[in-house]
Design goal:
Layout lengths: L4 H66 L2 H7 L3 H15 L3 E6 L4 E5 L7 H11 L4 E6 L8 E11 L2 E11 L2 H11 L2 E6 L2 E5 L15 E5 L2 E6 L12 E8 H52 L14 H28 L9 H18 L3 E8 L2 H8 L1 H18 L5 E4 L4 E7 L3 H17 L4 E8 L6 H16 L6 E3 L9 H10 L2 H13 L7 H15 L4 H13 L9 H4 L7 H7 L2 H10 L8 H6 L20 H16 L10 H10 L7 H13 L14
Parallel strand pairs: 14-15
Antiparallel strand pairs: 1-2, 1-5, 3-4, 4-5, 6-7, 6-10, 8-9, 9-10, 11-13, 11-14, 12-13
Helix pairs in contact: 1-6, 6-7, 9-10, 10-11, 12-13, 12-19, 15-16, 15-21, 16-21, 21-22, 22-23
């Protein structure tokens, strides 16, 4: 029986559909395999990026901790001691720094003590110590030589420098182990194993005991009868260790499952299309083409960076499903973008503005205040002893305190105020159209509310005026007031008053922008000029100290450091009110407490300029006593930096020989006698003796410096 043309065409079209279906199905299978491979490569890149970031973040944290410990007189003292003393001190050091391991060496590179690992004389540790003894920091991966365990650590070795000389090194380390494996697993949705020379050190799943050596290309492995695709991302070049690899495992059915399900659906649809014949096939093909046009058009709009209109599903089949999925995907992408943009300006914990957002709004408010001729005020809050609170009660409770205080700020801040999380435990409230008195009242009210919530805060207030104000000066003034509140007992409010302080916010702004030695020297001179009885004090102290450093044979570089430190040693007095600076009689205890904050305030100012970092020891510690009864840190003996011990002698001598409203300056011989009496108690005995001999051996002159030694 001869088939009709329609039948032939129907069969021909059916065969064409079948052939095309086979081709499409094969292509789909091939593309699915390529997509699986691409997904694994994306996983590999994501894990590699996250791993690099995690290791570098850990390295940065270790470097910061190591530098903090290296600046500690206590740690430098341990490097000068014996092994038993160092070993006994290590548990406290490890607990305070929250690291997994710590080690201290002496100036010859010998390990005086180590805790948390057993490194012995491993090449990596030796290299780190040798590098540190050249006064350069070192970082890398080291392995434990303890035969009872196999562990590797990310370590940083920092030199311990005292008086310009390297007296040893301190090494701090994090273990690359289970915690890191689980962190990576949670972040990537994969399983992670860390192995050395095919020996498993740690993994995110307990049943993973051993894996073959892996490469960056995925390979199939079986763990407890479950198939995984495994690969090893590259490590950062500066942290690569022979034999060390991170294994990333993703279940094979998770990778291929979605594509297998889609393939089955595709075969079923193909069978229905073939059995329906030419007419239904043509309609179905035309229907698919027309239906996909809307999705393709929306995808192209999305590719340009715009958001397309929502597609109307309009049907319950696969096309409708694809439209719904596309809508959901677009909504998800849009929501994710909005969340990411919000994180740029919001603190995720408290949902307040972050530091960056505050700075932007502060600048805009300053411009508005200048245009309208209005004032505004800024309050900085600091939760007292927050680090110790976290240590005692845990970070979860610490986060709850931050959230509680943020809630108090929202509740009591006036309408229109800008509230921000300024730092870790610091908050800021910027109040437009207000003066410092209003800010002080609000700060005290919030301080009382915090106390009722079983924690305390310190606060610093400053005022912006359109004629003398600047955003940078306003924040620095508030920081100075906050520092004074913290260093005079905490749980109090301090106000920076430009009318009664040695500098106004405009001068502070100039320093914040320039941060040079000349600018801060001008601020120090402004302090001296406030009181005719102390005018020229900083310059004289600098010259006395410089000449003493020369007299005891110090190198020219150190002599210059002493002179510059002396010039700036009292710069912190810009935050001390004139009523205290210029008081004609002796200070009462409360006034004395405020006066004793000036070394810390000076350090805060000098910290703003990176080039002034070497001057910090002299600025902060020039009022320490050799017997440990000084301030602000009660350091004793050689734990006090040499530059500060020199400044202490020069500062006291100038104070004794200068006139005061309530007494006449002492004669030189009497002042030198007092310096000699203070040897061993107030002063370094060697420096006190040298200063007396220097003054007695060289007559004063009117030119060339205090002793005629100035170049």
């Amino acid at each position: 029986m001869q088939r009709s043309l329609a039948s032939k065409l129907s069969w021909l079209f059916g065969l064409l559909i079948l052939a095309m279906g086979v081709v499409v199905l094969s292509s789909f299978a091939y593309l699915s395999a390529k997509q699986v491979d691409r997904r694994l490569k994306v996983d590999s890149k994501a894990v590699q990026t996250l791993l690099e970031q995690l290791l570098r973040d850990k390295k940065l944290q270790l470097t910061t901790l190591g530098q903090f410990m290296a600046n500690s007189p206590r740690v430098r003292y341990l490097a000068l001691g014996d092994s038993e003393t160092s070993q006994q001190a290590l548990p406290a050091l490890r607990q305070d720094s929250h690291v997994d391991a710590v080690a201290i060496s002496d100036r010859d590179g010998h390990i005086l003590g180590q805790l948390g690992f057993s490194l012995g004389t491993s090449d990596s540790l030796s290299q780190g110590v040798r590098t540190a003894l050249t006064q350069h920091a070192w970082s890398g991966v080291v392995s434990s030589t303890d035969s009872s365990s196999r562990s590797i650590y990310l370590a940083v070795t920092i030199p311990l420098v005292n008086g310009g000389y390297c007296v040893g090194s301190v090494t701090v380390a994090y273990e690359i182990g289970v915690t890191m494996a689980r962190t990576l697993a949670r972040a990537t949705g994969t399983q992670i194993g860390i192995q050395m020379n095919a020996h498993m050190l740690a993994s995110s799943m307990s049943q993973l005991a051993k894996l073959p050596a892996l490469g960056i290309s995925p390979r199939a492995v079986t763990v407890r009868d479950i198939e995984y695709m495994a690969f090893s991302p590259r490590l950062p070049q500066d942290l690569t260790v022979p034999g060390l690899e991170f294994a990333v495992l993703r279940r094979t059915d998770e990778v291929t499952g979605p594509y297998q399900g889609t393939t089955k659906s595709f075969v079923a649809i193909l069978f229905l299309v073939l059995s329906a014949g030419v007419y239904l096939g043509q309609r179905f093909t035309r229907n698919i083409t027309q239906s996909l046009d809307g999705i393709v058009l929306a995808a192209r709009v999305l590719q340009t960076g715009a958001w397309p209109e929502r597609l109307d599903p309009g049907r319950d089949d696969e096309i409708g499903f694809l439209r719904s999925v596309f809508n959901d995907m677009t909504d998800s992408l849009k929501s994710s973008q909005e969340k990411l943009l919000s994180l740029i300006h919001k603190d995720p914990l408290t949902e307040l503005d972050n530091h960056r957002s505050l700075q932007d709004k502060l600048e805009r408010q300053a411009q508005l205040c200048r245009a309208l001729g209005e004032t505004m005020s800024l309050i900085l809050f600091d939760i007292d002893n927050f680090r110790e609170f976290n240590t005692q009660y845990g970070h979860e409770r610490g986060d709850q305190v931050l959230i509680e205080f943020a809630s108090l700020l929202r509740r009591f801040a006036p309408q229109g105020a800008i509230i921000a999380r300024y730092g870790g435990e610091e908050f800021a409230v910027l109040i437009p159209r207000s003066e410092k008195l209003q800010a002080e009242i609000l700060a005290n009210r919030l301080r009382e509310q915090a106390q009722e919530a079983n924690f305390t805060v310190s606060a610093g207030c400053a005022e912006f005026r359109p004629d003398t104000g600047d955003p940078e000066g306003l924040t620095l003034a508030a920081e100075l007031a906050l520092s004074r509140a913290k260093n005079t007992g905490r749980n109090r409010v301090a106000v920076f008053d430009s009318e009664t302080s040695a500098a106004n916010p405009a001068e502070l702004r100039r320093f914040a922008q320039e941060g040079s030695f000349a600018t801060i020297e001008a601020l120090a001179a402004a302090v001296d000029a406030k009181d005719p009885y102390t005018e020229g004090h900083s310059r004289r102290v600098a010259e006395y100290a410089r000449d003493l450093a020369r007299f005891i044979g110090q190198k020219p570089e150190f002599v210059d450091l002493v002179f510059r430190s002396g010039t700036l040693h009292d710069v912190g007095k810009i935050g001390v009110p004139d009523a205290i600076l210029k008081k004609p009689g002796r200070l009462d205890p409360e006034e004395q407490a405020i006066m004793e904050t000036h070394p810390v305030l000076g350090e805060l100012i000098a910290l703003k300029a990176p080039q002034l970092q070497p001057l910090l020891p002299g600025v902060r510690h020039h009022h320490e006593r050799f017997d440990g009864k000084g301030y602000p840190d009660q350091l004793a003996g050689e734990a006090i930096p040499l530059v500060a011990r020199i400044l202490a002698v020069a500062d006291t001598y100038d104070a004794m020989t200068s006139d005061r409203p309530y007494r006449k300056g002492l004669a030189v011989e009497i002042a030198l006698g007092e310096i000699a009496k203070g040897a061993g108690s107030q002063f370094d005995p060697g420096l006190a003796e040298a200063f007396v001999r220097m003054r007695k051996s060289r007559p004063d002159t009117t030119e060339g410096g205090v002793l005629g030694l100035a170049a």
